[in-house]
Amino acid sequence: MYGDHAFKLVQHAKRTQALVHLPHYQTELVRETTREVRDLDKDVSNILAPFEGSFNPSSEPATACSVLVNHLCMRRNKRCLLAYHRVRSDKLEEMCWSGKDILDQEQQAGRQGNGEGSGMASEAGNQSSLSPEEEEYIRQYGDMLAAYKGQWTDIDLTGSLEPPRDLFIDVRVLKDAGEIQTEYGAITLTKNSQFFVRQGDVERLIAQGYLQKLS
Amino acid sequence: MGSYYDIDAILTDAQKVPCTFDLDIPGLGYLDENAGGDIKAGTRVSLPLWLSTLLAVQRLGPSSQQLCTLDLPASISPRVLAALKAGPKTVDLRQLASHYYELAARVLELFEEEEIVDVLGETFKERAAEIADHAHNPRGALGEAQDFLRGLDEMERQLFRSAHGSSNAMREWMGETKKKR
């Protein structure tokens, strides 16, 4: 039945709305749906070909019905495709505004996938859950956001909305992040070490997922 | 009913309703599991809402020929309505249709059925009170509560989630749950 692939896409979109991270891009389903639309369009052209532009729906209700059904299926597929992509891009934008470095996370996921699969061809190690178009979109969106934020240097628009309770906080390092400079000297961040640092210095790293705040 | 991009509206439209064709339509046999063939007049098929509502309102030709007639889905049959009148909180709406109220709203747009509208309105009011009760007073793993919550349709489920979330957020804001961030 036409519209089944599109329905699966919408179910994926519904699931995505409930999740925190973004699941994999359903390239196969999207391709199937667009293929269906193309086939339906071909069917409509075939049905209308004998009439050569002078089709009168009132005189041929049965043919008009077939054309209408095909047209409705095409519209339905289009709506489902658009909604699926809309949900994903909304989620990506939300992640951008919360300060997460998405491209960096995707690259790290890709590197991990490559490392575990020794001997695998490099192209098979693409573990990113975004399609190439989405990656391009997020890159340009990030640039635009940075340009927007740059207009106000004394306020961070993508920062936390919660006022800090203490000046200094305990943090644990989740991933190796090299050396950072603080007012009190340089700190080397190695995995699973704990530090007592100024909140303002490490806020950015917490948002990006390198550090974890301890309560 | 909902915006173009609204996922719940799209899922509502995907629900099926029975439809009877009034004409012979060539090439649409696949709707009746008869790929490549025709549909004969008088065939009853289960079509999704997005197809059936638009087909049902078509009037073609000088004789105002109708393409197909829409029937009320089984989920708002008299049997179900009687059950809802008797005990709205015990009926498992999710089993009848995942987006029950939206489905009924879409179908009732095309029919004049005041009674169904009244019954559904009453049902919603009673169930909403029950949902609010469950949301604000967590009763743990009691059997009855679990059954009721499992039988909620999608809209009621979202209602429950927001009621539960808002009461928790309120308590946290008032400082009763001291969460040291």
From TrEMBL, chain A:
Its main location: nucleus. Pfam families: PSF1_C (PF24997), Sld5 (PF05916). Residues 57-152 form the GINS subunit domain. It comes from the Eukaryota. GO terms for biological process: DNA strand elongation involved in mitotic DNA replication. Keywords: DNA replication, Nucleus. Component of the GINS complex. This is DNA replication complex GINS protein PSF1. It comes from Letharia columbiana.
TrEMBL record, chain B:
Keywords: DNA replication, Nucleus. GO terms for biological process: mitotic DNA replication initiation. Its main location: nucleus. The keyword Iron-sulfur does not apply. It is found in: Nucleus. GO terms for cellular component: GINS complex. It comes from the Eukaryota. InterPro entries: GINS_A (IPR021151), GINS_bundle-like_dom_sf (IPR036224), GINS_Psf3 (IPR010492), GINS_Psf3_sf (IPR038437), PSF3_N (IPR055221). Residues 76-175 form the GINS subunit domain. Residues 5-57 form the DNA replication complex GINS protein PSF3 N-terminal domain. Belongs to the GINS3/PSF3 family. The GINS complex plays an essential role in the initiation of DNA replication. Component of the GINS complex. This is DNA replication complex GINS protein PSF3.
